[in-house]
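Q: My labmate handed me this sequence with no annotations at all. I'd like to see what the chain might look like in three dimensions before we decide whether it's worth expressing. Could you predict it?
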Amino acid sequence: MRLISTIVILLACLCNIINCSGQIDQFFMMTKFGMFFSFNTTTGQLITNQNTKSGDKYFFYAAVDSNSTTNTVTFLGTDKTDRNDYLIEYNIEHNNFTNLQGIEGQYGGFEWSQIFAYDPVHNFAALPSIVMNEQEANLTIFVWNFTSQELEEITLPTGSLNQNDMTPVASYDIETGNYYIVYCLANPKILYLVVYNMLSRKIVQDPIAFDIYIPTPQIVFAAGKLFLINTYPMQNYEIYNVDVTAKTVTPAYTIANSWTTNQGSDFDMVIGQKGTSIVLFSHSKLAYTCTTIDLETMSFHASPSYQTDIKFGYEWVSGAI
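A: Here is what I predict for the chain of 321 residues:
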């Protein structure tokens, strides 16, 4: 019995270290001009407001990982001094950056704000986009292969994408290697879903058309379920359940949000994910709110609203800790 008790305690400690529950303690954002802000998702209070002075050295694409124990965030971005892409660790307490793994060269395309794929076991990050300046702009997955130190391109035969639409966006299932990608063709203007396995390098679900259009979608895979989220800044956030087999999208939750036009245009990404949980950063009645949702239990918590006259500026990259 003593051995069993010891094992249980060790497993509990390990689960706490790796944050098995996916508990989100903070929502953070890095602005285009290097200001870093973080909010306590329970109290809604602003925790961090500091200038990282990173604008001259780094250009960040996304935050791909975080650690609540060390209070660090790992970004994917370009080091402007050598023009190579790196995983870049940011220590919030010390307000400094450390280059980790990198590739030779830098990404030259564009990306809509989203949660990038990151697989530390197979040592890559990925993003769905298109190859710039191509007449037939098919869906292309860009892969930062840190083992070979190369930027790879995987083009899927989707047909020409609508380049004026805020897609493609995707969500990665680290357990299976499946990459759930939502995109919109040039015609008709509806959403499609394709599933590509990053480990076998094969399409495992042919494109599915959904009879719905979302102007600023995010897609999240968690706890074996798929969700679409409309994060259009000038209206409420809408969360939808996606049934791939039935090819249906049904409303699940609504989160109050009412940016004014000028305020909303400053916020490019308002979502973070940690494990099976997500956090959405919203504005309503002159105050900011962090809403966390456990997608496994479908329970949610909205923090008390935080009123402030701080000018956040142009939010660029966001995430969860």
